[in-house]
């Protein structure tokens, strides 16, 4: 029989298949099934008919399917009795359903049995079936001992395969068919009898299961007795139909579920607790707390609803009715149990009774309690009862934040849910007025109003509540009339009654008695009862609730409005309230004070008058008033302050002082008033020294709390001598006071700028505290730790970083030990607060020592501790949390986690904004610092406009502070100006940036003169910003001067501090590199650029998150520097590395990195273009323009200059590629943008406009549009002349360049004299500018001299021409000695010089110049063949021509030497091809053929080092030369010599020129005979070899092959269909906004979700192709509404992705995050998704790193929720993944638990 177990009942125990399998028959109770289901009894009706009736009726019973547990537990499996399956919770597992069916069949007189199967695969759930013997006998008779332990041999042949199969002796049914899915769909649910029979047979004979046991339902077995179902169930359903609610305030209550539940992590945590409870031995009690309107009840109801759908008996506890059986039944329920007790703080007794019932259950349960706060007697009573009853339990606390995490969603979902008619468009959530913040309640009420068609929504809470109350009062009056049959005579009377009830909050049955406080109702008993009944009905208080207008904010507002009209109501209410029993009231006087204070926010004088009257009439009420004042401020605080200052104060000042703690953010003014008055009275009364010292100490602290630093210092300086004298007389008594006074003295000296005096005082304090610990014991360790903290802060202020770190470390160690050993919770909390302070201090000290990881760890721990202490968010704890958040934000930013840094900065600033309202003197400085930090964080995440606003506000606050106390706040003002300068620069305000940076430098110089060690880096940083600002403003010299000084300061600091300032030094060197380059010192620029990269590479290796971005910046700069010195491969390599780094960073935080990525891609396009890869350069140009367009779309003012620059760059590349039409288009677009910018800020953008116009002139010139080119060139010159006139020499060199360009254009228009004039003016300007920059302009001067030479030649002045080019050569020759990068310029100029010398008959001079130029080019081509072999071939040709005059052998030798100078490969092939061409031009066929064959052999082989464009160039040149022979030389490859028929050639050309498929198809149709011809394949193959980088040729080759196989028409039809799909996809991807492309997807859903579109997207290289492919894939299985939600909301996508994670579906997870990549950055969730994706790729190390980084910034509730998600994943994952997933779960451990 049933084995012994932990079950305390015997009526319905768990069933053990191992110990007592035959007992399964005892759970078959036909009479119990009949009690709850209308099923037929025994009859003569056919068996099949009876089966169908029973099946259909049970299927209609609404039974939910509960998933089968894999493991039944040590005591066996719990089987739900029929009442639970059919009534409550009305669900069951397959075994429950099988037993239920067996009972029903037994009742109908049928032979039946239950068959239990095990899963063949370990770890999978088993199954249960129900068997019926239609003939009334089993094939082999009844089994021995009532159990078939193995399937009877006859079984397979005796079971029907289905109802329509041949009749046999047994029918086996799948019982799941009578159930319905309630959560995740169950297998085989909701089927007819025929399907159940077929499924049952299939499962019985399947290899997926194996027989466990079969048990016939023997009527002779004594059944178990199930518990009787109570008449009234103890739990009610969580939700009601909205139609039963008649008013807004009722309709929008949580129980009506009008607004769909918005996902939140607290629900995940609670559901995870439920899952843990089922597996554990304890009852779980979850306490959900939060202010009114925060969503406690809705969260609890949603938990109930979801657990009920998962098979639990879950509901809301009804009010207990006497001693009935209702609650007792909960002890008998076999299903998992969850009970929600709402407003548990008012139902402590009921909760205790409930828990005593729950304690008798054999299975654990979950009890969820909701309350406004944990504090108070109610929870203590419950926990005391649990301990007294020895009830094993687990207590969990869940505190909800005030604001909803998704306000817009909440508003819109409410509106959509309540909306009664169609709307033209979604309503807009109104921005609240300044000082108003929408709560969750406000959002729901606003949604309700919007749904009712109200066009203009309120923008203040008061207006919102007035509007809602207007509807509510109409409802009250209507209800009164319906109840009484007569309208209410005085319409304001019921509103006054509602205010009275809201103030007194009586129990419902005492409402009429409470209304005697309303004068007009005091004697009107009948009317009073009618109004009381009406309001109780309308307000509908829940079980255990008191009567009041709910939610509280609406009720408070109504009360104040009423008291304004009926001021006598307050005293009347309190008098009546004093007569009521305490249990019949809510919070009594405190409630009245709270309501008045909250309501007084809209009219403080009126509320204050009421509160003052209450306190003057009874002063003993002051502690309660102070409690309310501390929590809410407002009128209660104002009244206390005024009464404390009054000469006739009724307040006991000594008691008030003792009750007010230091740092009381909300009551600081009251404390200051009280203790200043006590000090004044003490002095006047001749207080003793110890008493006066105590009063001075208190006054000092109070003044400091008030922000009066000087006053605080003055008081403590007076106190210290008093305590010193007293300590000499009685050390034991007064030494602690003296040590404390020294500690405060150190703090106040530091705060007023006396840094070294602060160190002296702090060291004295520490010395005394050590003495006290040694002499009096460890009770003084707390004070020692506090003094060490002060010492650490003081030492850090004097730049004694090592000393500061030592003191901070010791303080943390002491505080950790104090926390560890503290026993009372209150004392432990105090020590935890001190530990948080120490950790914050330690984080600063570690950061100063470059230990960023350690700094962040300490800062994060401090935040975690602060959050743990934050209860009800008091002002004091809020200030501590704000400080910790601001601190950790900086550390997160330093570690590269910009999103988390911004999150902390936003929260910190919001807290300080609240605190500054309470205490402007103290918290203005903190708010300014937080705003400054917020500005930096927003800038790093790409929000430059908001960042500028924050910086401007911070600077304004610091200016005001510095105006009052310059000594204290000068450094802060300088710091904020530095930030402001950066923000102005980012938004395009160049002058403003320089002004702010200059002011910051001036302030820091003054501070540096006073204390160099402390301010050296601040000054260096300000100089760096000033340098950048001056450079942007065109002041090259000033910029270089500031950068050099900054670098010198940083080097000095780093050298003297042992390299501790490496990051700052690298930053200064990077800036210096830019400035030196601007000034023409390319070698010096390169040297410091290399040094900066080396430093940052080392830093990034140690801390990738913190320094990868900085390394990318330095690499981008190094690429520029290398390019300028001629190292093109090195430049490209550095540029590629920079772009790769930015791409990785952008994948994590696109907004923050996008500007850097755009600039780096633009830079790389220049580098690869200069290296000869023009096609890739153009691709990169397109990308850069796209990136800048994206940025400009966000902030045109800031990024249109970048877009204009990228367009200008593209025009240069297109010009070089010969695409003059598109080049001109890009140049025109660039000019147009710069014209717009110059219209707004002509001075700032005039030089840029001139540059763009100058480039436009070049584009027109290259396209041979000479008139327009000349016009643009003249405009560019005029613009630069204007710039020079306005801003001096900064743009003289640019004017010279424009003149040089103008000279070239004039020369081509045959205006040679004009060309000469322009070139000579350019030369003069360059010479003048070179006085300031001797080497920077040499290359440009030489270009101008070359133009002068050309113009003089045109004017037949050969001597003048030679003079000019010779000067250019000499200048470049000297420059190359210092700057080898200009060797190429020298080589080109030497070629020009050789020509000029030859024309003047100086053959030897010409030969020498030509040889020198060739030697230079050989060296260059040897290092970089792709870039320089064409120029080497040209120069060698010219030299060979000169040598032919003297010796043909020398001419041949010069070609050999040039070829040998280039490494073997395609570069050497190009030189050989040049030689062949030269020989051919001279008619030397054999020599030409020999070199051509050698060139072809080299070019035919693969050359891994040769870029594709070099291969293309040399092969085409070889073919051109080869085809010039008649016949071509032998020994050449086919691609070099085989003729391509003209028809084939025309096909290939036309195909390549076709812009799209329709044109391509036209080409193919027009040349159908060619496409299907026998020669085209060879011709295409030749062109593939000649153009290896042309994908269109490969596509043509594939098409030709397909035509050979399928025929032309079939291929064209196929490609036409694909093109249609491509066009559809392209049009979809080109939609400018998400809303538009979602609409496009909905319109074309059928085609975009087809396989063809998926193939196109998979093949696309477009950046957004992956995202579109994922969205299309999701749209196949999801509604468009769901797809739109997850695509447009990262949080929604993250929710879906977490669900996929829990289902162990990584493919779905990846699809969802591809559809909305922002989900991977969703705070608190994205890091787990990234880690899961890493783990799915087998990269556990990266997954763990992601988890660690994410866990460090996640809130505790987020970490707990993610642990639940991962645990669910582990439960469903493959066994070999479980260990890795558990590793990720371990990383989520709470940092507060770590040492």
From TrEMBL:
Q: What is this protein called?
A: Tetratricopeptide repeat protein
Tell me the leader sequence span: none
Q: Which organism is it from?
A: Streptomyces violarus
Q: Which Pfam families match?
A: TPR_10 (PF13374)
């Amino acid at each position: 029989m049933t084995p012994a177990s932990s079950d305390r009942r015997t009526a319905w125990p768990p069933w053990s298949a191992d110990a007592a399998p035959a007992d399964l028959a005892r759970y078959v109770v036909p009479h119990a099934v009949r009690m709850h289901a209308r099923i037929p009894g025994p009859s003569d009706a056919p068996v099949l008919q009876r089966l169908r009736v029973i099946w259909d009726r049970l299927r209609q019973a609404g039974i939910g399917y509960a998933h089968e547990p894999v493991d039944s537990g040590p005591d066996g499996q719990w089987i739900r009795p029929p009442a639970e399956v059919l009534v409550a919770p009305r669900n069951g597992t397959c075994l429950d359903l099988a037993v239920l069916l067996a009972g029903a069949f037994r009742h109908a007189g049928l032979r039946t049995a239950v068959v239990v199967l095990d899963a063949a695969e370990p770890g999978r759930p088993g199954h249960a079936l129900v068997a019926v013997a239609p003939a009334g006998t089993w094939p082999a008779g009844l089994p021995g001992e009532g159990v078939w332990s193995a399937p009877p041999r006859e079984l397979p042949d005796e079971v029907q395969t289905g109802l329509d199969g041949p009749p046999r002796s047994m029918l086996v049914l799948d019982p799941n068919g009578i159930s319905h899915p309630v959560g995740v769909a169950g297998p085989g649910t909701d089927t007819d009898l025929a399907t159940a029979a077929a499924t049952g047979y299939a499962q019985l004979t399947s290899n997926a299961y194996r027989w466990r046991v079969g048990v016939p339902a023997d009527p002779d077995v004594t059944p178990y007795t199930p518990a009787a179902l109570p008449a009234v169930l103890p739990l009610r359903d969580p939700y009601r139909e909205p139609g039963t609610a008649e008013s807004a305030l009722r309709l929008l209550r949580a129980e009506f579920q009008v607004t769909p539940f918005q996902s939140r992590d607290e629900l995940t945590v609670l559901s995870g607790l439920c899952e843990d409870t089922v597996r554990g031995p304890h009852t779980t009690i979850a306490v959900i707390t939060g202010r009114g309107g925060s969503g406690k009840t809705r969260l609890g109801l949603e938990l109930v609803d979801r657990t009920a759908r998962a098979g639990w008996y879950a509901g809301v506890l009804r009010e207990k009715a006497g001693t009935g059986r209702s609650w007792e039944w909960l002890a008998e329920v076999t299903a998992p149990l969850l009970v929600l007790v709402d407003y548990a703080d008012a139902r402590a007794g009921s909760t205790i009774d409930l828990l005593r019932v729950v304690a008798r259950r054999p299975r654990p349960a979950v009890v969820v309690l909701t309350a406004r706060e944990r504090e108070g007697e109610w929870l203590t009573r419950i926990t005391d009862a649990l301990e007294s009853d020895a009830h094993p339990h687990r207590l969990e606390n869940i505190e909800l934040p005030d604001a909803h995490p998704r306000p817009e969603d909440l508003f819109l979902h409410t509106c959509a849910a309540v909306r009664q008619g169609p709307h033209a468009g979604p309503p807009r959530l109104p921005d609240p007025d300044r000082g108003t913040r929408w709560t969750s309640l406000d959002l729901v009420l606003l949604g309700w109003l919007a749904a009712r068609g109200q066009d203009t929504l309120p923008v203040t809470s008061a207006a919102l509540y007035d509007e809602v109350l207007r509807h509510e009062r109409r409802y009250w009056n209507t209800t009164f009339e319906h109840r009484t049959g007569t309208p209410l005579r005085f319409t304001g009377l019921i509103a006054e009654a509602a205010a009275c009830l809201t103030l007194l909050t009586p129990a419902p049955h005492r409402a009429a008695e409470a209304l005697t406080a309303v004068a007009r109702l005091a004697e009107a008993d009948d009317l009073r009862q009618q109004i009381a009944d009406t309001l109780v009905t309308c307000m509908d208080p829940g079980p255990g609730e008191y009567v009041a207008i709910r939610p509280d904010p609406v009720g408070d507002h109504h009360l104040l409005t009423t008291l304004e009209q009926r001021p006598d109501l307050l005293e009347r209410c309190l008098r009546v309230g004093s007569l009521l029993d305490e249990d019949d009231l809510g919070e009594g006087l405190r409630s009245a004070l709270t309501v008045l204070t909250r309501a007084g926010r809209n009219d403080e004088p009126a509320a204050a008058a009421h509160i003052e009257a209450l306190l003057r009439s009874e002063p003993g009420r002051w502690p309660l008033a102070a409690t309310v004042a501390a929590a809410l401020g407002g009128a209660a605080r104002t009244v206390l302050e005024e009464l404390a200052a009054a000469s006739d104060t009724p307040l006991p000042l000594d008691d008030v002082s003792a009750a007010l703690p230091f740092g009381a953010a909300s009551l600081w003014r009251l404390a200051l008033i009280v203790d200043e008055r006590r000090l004044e009275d003490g002095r006047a009364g001749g207080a003793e020294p110890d008493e006066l010292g105590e009063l001075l100490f208190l006054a000092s602290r109070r003044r400091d709390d008030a922000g009066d630093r000087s006053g605080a210092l003055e008081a403590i300086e007076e106190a210290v001598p008093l305590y010193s004298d007293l300590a000499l007389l009685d050390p034991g008594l007064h030494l602690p006071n003296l040590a404390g006074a020294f500690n405060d003295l150190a703090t106040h000296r530091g705060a007023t700028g006396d840094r070294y005096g602060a160190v002296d005082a702090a060291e004295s304090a520490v010395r005394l505290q050590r003495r006290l610990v040694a002499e009096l014991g460890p009770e003084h360790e707390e004070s020692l730790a506090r003094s060490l903290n002060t010492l650490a802060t003081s030492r850090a202020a004097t730049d004694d970083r090592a000393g500061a770190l030592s003191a901070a470390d010791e303080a943390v160690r002491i505080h950790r030990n104090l926390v560890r050993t503290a026993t009372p919770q209150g004392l432990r909390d105090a020590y935890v607060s001190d530990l948080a302070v120490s950790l914050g201090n330690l984080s600063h000290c570690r950061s100063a020592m470059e230990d960023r990881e350690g700094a962040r760890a300490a800062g994060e721990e401090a935040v975690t501790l602060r959050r743990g202490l934050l209860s009800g968010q008091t002002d004091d704890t809020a200030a501590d949390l704000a400080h910790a958040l601001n601190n950790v934000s900086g550390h997160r930013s330093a570690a590269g986690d910009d999103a988390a840094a911004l999150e902390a900065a936003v929260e910190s600033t919001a807290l300080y904004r609240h605190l500054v309202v309470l205490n402007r003197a103290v918290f203005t400085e903190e708010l300014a610092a937080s705003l400054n930090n917020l500005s930096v964080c927003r800038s790093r995440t790409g929000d430059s406009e908001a960042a500028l606003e924050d910086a401007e506000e911070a600077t304004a606050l610091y200016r005001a502070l510095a105006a009052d106390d310059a000594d204290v706040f000068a450094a802060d003002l300088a710091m904020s100006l530095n930030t402001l300068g950066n923000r102005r620069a980012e938004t395009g305000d160049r002058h403003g940036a320089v002004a702010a940076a200059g002011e910051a430098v001036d302030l820091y110089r003054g501070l540096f003169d006073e204390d160099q060690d402390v301010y050296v880096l601040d000054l260096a940083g300000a100089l760096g910003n000033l340098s950048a600002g001056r450079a942007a403003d065109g002041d090259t010299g000033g910029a270089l001067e500031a950068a050099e000084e900054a670098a010198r300061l940083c080097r000095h600091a780093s050298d003297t501090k042992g390299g501790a300032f490496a990051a700052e030094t690298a930053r200064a060197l990077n800036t210096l590199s830019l400035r030196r380059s601007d000034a023409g010192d390319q070698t010096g620029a390169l040297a410091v650029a290399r040094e900066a990269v080396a430093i940052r590479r080392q830093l990034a290796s140690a801390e990738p998150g913190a320094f990868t971005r900085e390394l990318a910046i330095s690499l981008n700069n190094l690429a520029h520097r290398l390019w300028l010195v001629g190292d093109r491969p090195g430049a490209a390599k550095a540029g590629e590395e920079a772009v790769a780094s930015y791409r990785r960073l952008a994948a994590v935080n696109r907004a923050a990195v996008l500007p850097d990525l755009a600039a780096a891609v633009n830079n790389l396009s220049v580098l690869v273009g200069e290296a000869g890869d023009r096609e890739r350069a153009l691709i990169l140009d397109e990308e850069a323009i796209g990136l800048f367009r994206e940025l400009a779309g966000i902030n045109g003012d800031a990024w249109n200059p970048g877009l204009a620059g990228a367009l200008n760059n593209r025009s240069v590349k297109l010009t070089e590629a010969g695409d003059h039409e598109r080049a001109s288009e890009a140049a025109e677009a660039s000019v147009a943008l710069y014209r717009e910018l110059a219209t707004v800020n002509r001075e700032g953008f005039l030089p840029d406009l001139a540059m763009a116009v100058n480039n436009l002139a070049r584009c027109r010139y290259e396209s041979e549009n000479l008139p327009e080119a000349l016009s643009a060139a003249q405009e560019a010159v005029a613009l630069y002349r204007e710039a020079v006139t306005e801003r001096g020499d900064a743009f003289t060199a640019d004017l010279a360049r424009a003149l040089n360009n103008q000279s070239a254009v004039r020369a081509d228009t045959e205006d040679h004299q004009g060309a000469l004039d322009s070139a000579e003016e350019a030369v003069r300007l360059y010479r003048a500018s070179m006085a300031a920059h001797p080497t920077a302009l040499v290359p440009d001067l030489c270009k101008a001299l070359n133009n002068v030479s050309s113009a003089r030649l045109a004017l037949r002045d050969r001597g003048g021409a030679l003079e000019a080019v010779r000067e250019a050569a000499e200048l470049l020759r000297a420059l190359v000695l210092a700057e080898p990068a200009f060797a190429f310029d020298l080589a080109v100029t030497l070629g020009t010089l050789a020509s000029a010398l030859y024309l003047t008959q100086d053959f030897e001079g010409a030969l020498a110049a030509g040889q020198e130029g060739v030697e230079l080019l050989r060296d260059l081509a040897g290092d970089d063949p792709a870039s320089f072999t064409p120029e080497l071939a040209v120069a060698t040709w010219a030299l060979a021509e000169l040598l032919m005059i003297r010796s043909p052998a020398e001419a041949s030798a010069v070609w050999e030497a040039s070829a040998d100078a280039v490494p073997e490969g395609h570069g050497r092939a190009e030189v050989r091809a040049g030689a062949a061409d030269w020989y051919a031009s001279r008619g030397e066929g054999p020599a030409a053929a020999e070199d051509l064959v050698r060139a072809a052999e080299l070019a035919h082989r693969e050359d891994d080092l040769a870029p594709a464009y070099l291969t293309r160039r040399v092969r085409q040149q070889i073919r051109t030369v080869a085809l010039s022979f008649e016949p071509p030389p032998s020994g050449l490859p086919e691609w070099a010599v085989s003729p391509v028929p003209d028809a084939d050639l025309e096909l290939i050309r036309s195909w390549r020129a076709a812009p799209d498929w329709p044109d391509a198809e036209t080409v193919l149709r027009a040349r159908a005979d060619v496409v299907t011809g026998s020669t085209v394949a060879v011709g295409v193959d030749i062109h593939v070899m000649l153009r290896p980088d042309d994908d269109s040729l490969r596509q043509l080759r594939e098409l030709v092959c397909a035509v050979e196989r399928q025929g032309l028409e079939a291929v064209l039809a196929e490609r036409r269909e694909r093109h249609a799909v491509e066009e559809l996809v392209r049009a979809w991807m080109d939609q400018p906004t998400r809303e538009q492309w979602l609409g496009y997807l909905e319109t074309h859903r059928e085609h975009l979700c087809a396989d063809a579109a998926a193939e196109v997207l998979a093949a696309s290289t477009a950046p957004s192709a992956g995202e579109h492919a994922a969205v299309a894939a999701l749209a196949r299985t999801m509604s468009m509404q769901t797809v739109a939600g997850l695509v447009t909301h990262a949080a929604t996508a993250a929710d879906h992705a977490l669900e996929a994670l829990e289902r162990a579906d990584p493919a779905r997870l990846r699809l969802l995050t591809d559809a909305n990549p922002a989900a991977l950055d969703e705070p608190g969730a994205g890091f787990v998704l990234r880690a899961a994706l890493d783990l799915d790729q087998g990269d556990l190390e990266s997954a763990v790193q992601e988890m660690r980084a994410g866990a460090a910034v996640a809130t505790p509730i987020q970490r707990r929720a993610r642990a639940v998600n991962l645990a669910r994943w582990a439960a469903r994952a493959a066994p070999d993944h479980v260990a890795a997933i558990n590793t990720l779960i371990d990383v989520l451990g709470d940092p507060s638990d770590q040492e």
